Amino acid sequence: MSRFVDTMVATATGAGGRARGMTTGEPNAPTRRSWAEVHEQATRMAGALVAGGVARGESIAVLAGDPAAIAPAVQAVWLAGGSTTMLHQPTARTDLAEWAGDTLRVLTMIGAKLVLLGAPFDALADVLEQNGVAYRKLDDLTGEPLGAPVDVDEDMPALLQLTSGSTADPKAVRITHGNLWSNAKAMEVAAELDPETDRMVSWLPLFHDMGMVGFLTVPMLFGIDLVKVTPPDFLGRPTLWPDLISRYRGTITAAPNFAYAIAARRMRGVDDGTFDLSTLRIALNGAEPIDPAAVKSFTDEGARFGLRPECVLCAYGMAETTLGVAFAPVFTGLSVDVVDPEELEGGRRAVPVPGDSPNARAFPLLGPPLPGLEVQVVDESGAVRGEREVGQLRVRGEAVTPGYLTVNGPLATQDADGWLDTGDEGYVVDGQVVVCGRRKDVIIMGGRNIYPTDIERAASAVEGVRAGNAVAVRLDAGTRRERFAVVVESKLAGEDDAVRALSKEISARVVDAVGLRPYSVVVLKPGSLPKTPSGKLRRAAAASLVPTG
């Protein structure tokens, strides 16, 4: 039996599993079920899966929106000895024919024999059937309880996590039972989780690793109370998030940087005393570059409701390590490393300077590697770099995936010594990890390495630009003509005079920040920028929005 499944069952059948559980259905019809009740349903679903012919090691895909239905379904897959894949969900604007084609490529890639289908996607049964895909509806999936979990090895896959890129060119991270157990235990230690006192509150999508692992699997594994809503619930009413933390006295939450910016903006117009955020001890910020200005706006607005700035926890993670790579120390708040821009861009060194230095770069300190993981910085030849020397970040440890599944077959992720290339550039200072940016996105001009986040933060600071909706696009990469453009969203799009003034101001702010003028500034209406299914901006795809000539 894998340590992961063994612990999950022990938690569900113990006192903690009966005392704690998950609340779903907010804000309209909140329903609470204990982890013991979730497990009881999961055993019946697992019994139906095994009776229906699902074998040990098989890949099962899940397409559902309701966390109350997803929790027992994924546990049932694990009890039946299978691996689970959360499929990317279509939205109201999705072309279903295109989605079906992408989904078929994913199902073929992961070798899925079955899709578990739940609301609100029941109507897609016809689409799956027309394409020869076997499915079972979650509402009908019940049978005799499975007597004992199917025995699986530590190196067998537990989760095939789809990456956040284009679904038309899919890739899945192969997360084993050993990977999942190791990273969950490491995060339990680093976040100082306490099932007796903690309550987690989340709206994160369950097809993304931070939602699926951090805010469903971890609380289910250790028996922590969870309040779970969906991304549409949050996006439709962002103040639902602080409202749930207040009413349920949440202690732990998490989101990408853009969500904290949205929450800060929406809390700004709310009367004092509306929320009580004093119970929050961890507000994890991860999954995308962290903007210190956005963090400050969140903590400043939250202070009116008792939020303590120390609760901010900056983190570094990726699906390739199951979820977490590094966590800042608990309840220390945001700490930044302020460095000289010229040394950073030209000398590849992070030389500290005073915070008020002209054009200084400020990077959040993301904490030390989680227990069981090592982080190393190397140059292009693989030679190890020293303290404050910028290079390629790589990671090694039990939580690191052994490989990807791709449309062209399996792909190994580790070198001969077990190191995984993260694709990120950064450095280490005082044992803490600092990420400068994605290597493929770094803009190289005049011998300088310009990080797109610096450009994007400058553009986002201009009034009229939608928070979190500015992208620096690398053009003519790797040539003598390499340059960059800035693409933003604004409600001013379509108003010629206003757009000209906005573009001029964005260019000026960017020049002030990085000393270079963008090739062009493109202003689009809200909702135009390409994003991944989990909400991250796609820089490469945004390049097609920049007019040529």
From TrEMBL:
Keywords: Ligase. Residues 447-539 form the AMP-dependent ligase C-terminal domain. It comes from the Bacteria. It holds the Pfam family AMP-binding_C_2. GO terms for molecular function: ligase activity. Residues 31-405 form the AMP-dependent synthetase/ligase domain. PANTHER family: DISCO-INTERACTING PROTEIN 2, DISCO-INTERACTING PROTEIN 2 DIP2 -RELATED. Belongs to the ATP-dependent AMP-binding enzyme family. This is Fatty acyl-AMP ligase. It comes from Saccharothrix hoggarensis.
